[in-house]
Write a structure and sequence with these properties.
flat; alpha/beta; 35% helix; 8-stranded mixed beta sheet
Amino acid sequence: MRAIRDIVQIDNEFHAVAELNALTTTTFACKQSDGDYTVDLSTPREWLNDQLTTAEVVGFITDKSFELMRRQLIFSKVEEFHDLFHLRKPFVSGESNLSYAGKIYDKKEMVALTDASLDFWLTAGRFCKQFETEMAAYIGVRYALLTNSGSSANLLAVSALSSPKLGERRLLPGDEVITVAAGFPTTVAPIVQNRLIPVFIDVDLATYNISVEEIEQAITPKTKAIMIAHTMGNPFNLSEVVRIAQKHNLWLIEDNCDALGSRYDGKLTGTFGHIATSSFYPPHHITMGEGGAVYTNDPILKMALESFRDWGRDCWCPSGCDNTCKKRFGWQLGELPLGYDHKYTYSHIGYNLKVTDMQAAIGIEQLKKLPSFIDRRIHNFNRLKSGLADLTDILILPEATPNSEPSWFGFILTIKDGEKYSRTRITEYLEANKVQTRMLFAGNLIKQPAFHGVEYRQVGDLPNTDKIMYDTFLVGVYPGLTDEMIDYMITTIKEAVYNT
């Protein structure tokens, strides 16, 4: 217990507290020899210091309540700092940079980050557990595990399928995994890193997703899995892909990193496959800086994912906990002696891909904003598409997959006649006029230097993938873009097309 006057003695910026009915209150009752009064934090500090030099001890406060109150005082300063230095600047046409993506946050994220840092737990802790619970509830799955990036989530997803715990269905070196070359490299890299063979299929233009009619002709006795992304938030044809996966007993991994909040047949993407992944890098739908998640409904896969994330250990105790299984020294695994400490027993060749509690704290606040973020992405996409409708003789505008409701990541444009209209000249004009552009990731992964010498198989010549490599670019739809910004983008894209 602390005497209330201790607060004044520790920090003369603030005053003695007689009552603390609500820890977040900014008004406190005080007692002094010349009478009782109330003050609040807006009272000039000099006056408070003068008035409270003779303050009496009028009560006591627990250490926990004292700590919580001190946090609130720090949080008020963080909020003040946010309002002074982190508010977004007004848009100025032609002068303000219009990023293709970016983080959207307010004082709540900064306070949450501060709250977690004051714990100084540093690694995964209470905020991590809360985010995993709330993320699983949002997606509608049994288990969600945080990791340090979406790329790590993809690595965990593929690695988990190699677990001996899966018996005859485990992936083994030399097995084939169907995917696409028109995508982000870390959708495919885990396939290669696990000594599996990627099998590349072409995509459809306008949706930019896998050409489902080519999947079955790509399947061989070596084919064990399908791993593909929902491109730019646009769900791939899940009904057909799921049908094929079930027919041929294939694992299905949904790379959901660009599609958090997208729906297919009314159901959120990330809930159709055996495993799905998300990314929380700043350009994505929500952010915690670096961060990602991998999720599943299967308890065996959950244990394998957790093991590969946490050094490969067999133990599933959370950080800081012991003996969850109630037989920590009662196991006999591998060739270890009976009773060898389960916390130091390893069932996989794993990694350390955990996230910090500070990041998770940010993610909790971001998850609350996700519905409004999705609405704004859809609004911005629709405004761009309507505004560019008169360019359809020159550009292929993006189309939602039938039966889907995309939570769009970006707005993809493909030049129909690449000889008449130059992508380079168009994107250089846009960049010069403050409209940021991006390629559709790697274009054709097979043509990237990293994939020279990598063993793979492809189905057909991948003509649409090559078309994307030469003639496709994208602009942003993220929630930080206002109608005024979108309208400026529309005007500038038209200028770029007609003037270059």
